[in-house]
Amino acid sequence: MSPYLKDKILIVDDEVFYISVLIEVLGSKYHVSVAKSGEQALERIAQGFMPDLVLLDILMPGLDGYEVCKKLKSNPDTSNIPIIFLTVKAEIEEEILGFELGAVDYITKPFSLPIIRARVKTHLALTSANRALAEQNHDLEAKVLERTAEISRTQDVAIYCMASLAETRDNETGKHIRRTQYYVKALAEYLRENSPYSASIDDAYIDLLFKSAPLHDIGKVGVPDAVLLKPGKLDEGEWSEMKKHAEYGKSAMESAENEYGNSSYLSIAKEIAYSHHERWDGSGYPEGLAEEDIPLSARIMAIADCYDALICRRVYKPPFTHEQATSIIKEGRGCHFDPHIADAFDALQEEFIKIADRFQDDD
Fold it and tell me: Is the pTM of the predicted complex or chain greater than 0.70?
């Protein structure tokens, strides 16, 4: 066997006789290196000799075996190396101390050669098995992460397809779903650092909000074309029909929950779809909720959706300028919109402009 393929053993002992015995017993089968002091052993390892097993004498001048063991176990690079203590005679207390420090075994001097071979073989086999298990676990974790990422991508595609299907009912909205995704993300990230809502907003919440935002108008699939695409002002009956899209969206999410069980994602999606037309002063729909009775996710979505609707062309209006849209949102602070979120929008105007430019509608 090539010496580079052999298990490596570091013998640490200050007595030449015992070193000679161990080399004779183990040298033909393993790659053996010798250190005659604790300091020399640590130096060998620091210089690149990384053993698979250490045979460590306890009683040595300078650093004794216990101190060497402590140093090896405190170093992440060497903490998993099995250590077998070599001792003339060990008291029970000394053995307990050795095991507490991390040793795996004791071999008593004078040596029994068959015992040396057997214990070294056993501990190297255990090390090899542990290493193989660790590699398998690492591979399994990588496969789980890959599969989780694949599921997440599939979910994102499904969400986008469903949202796009709803958008085809109102083909002038273009990349509205993409822009509003990034608007809500920008608002949530700002609010996490600069609002009373910081305790409610973490990375997981922002991710759920970002993924759920495209479904805010999914209920539009239930609104008749004559209402959804009417170029003029809606009459009272038509407006009542249009407002039903919030209930349709909620019902879709509830059907999914009934079929597949509750999830934080569906919960956020339902909040947004159902409540993003509520108003801070209670004058919105469908329930007339006010202030913090409106879910935070819906309050964030309200500004994102409103801003984008204002700056984009619709069948019933031309596009407004950013300045016009900003003025309308500022006027709605404290009546239509949550004041803290309106302030966040004001601070993020340049970011909103960049997002709108990045996802411009195709001509």
Answer: no
